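look at this record:
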Amino acid sequence: MPVTKQSSAETLGSQRLLQTAVNNRPELLQAALGKSGALGDDESVAWVSPIQSEDYREYRDKVALTKLGIDEKVRVPLRDFWPSRGPVWDALGVSGAGRPILVEAKAHIPEAASPGTKASPASLELIEKSLIATRKHLAPRSTSEWTGTFYQYANRLAYQYYLRKLNQIDSSLVFLNFINAMDMDGPSTEEEWQGASRLIHAVLGIPAKLERFGVFHAYVDAEDLTDKR
């Protein structure tokens, strides 16, 4: 089921910032994704969520695959890889080449320190199996635990593994980080975010760079969206 989520008007956290970027300043997103490598030179992207005319709905599970136009392309049923009520995607888009773009956005570093999974025992068994498979794909020698701290980051990586490796769908996973989100006490430089990302990767036991797996980090200046300069 789609999820309708709107942030408080008093704050401009990652959700509101991303809504603004997708609907009002898509050129900023396109430039950021191009710089990160998630988009090719002069490649466009058509956003399918969060769209203002759809009340900024965000999507998960099979509905997300349908919005991306790839539900009929999967070889491995999603239910065999992940329990229902999986990750809700902050934004979904399709590149000019037809490549799915999945976005997880953050405006301040504490957002990235997600708690561990609270899945039921039955769901946890499948989650752990899929996380281990993803970890082995990204870093065969890693023995890190992925169901604890940074679980949200880990399960996004798992979905990319599901699409790109198990289903042979060329997709891009983008961790989009806003800088200068001052009302959220967010980082003022890309370097601060990069340091946080290196820490997350170290804890998860994975390489610092994952571009060859279709995983990218992009940065957008919140001040370009909020006219606070």
Summary: Residues 29-170+193-226 form one domain.
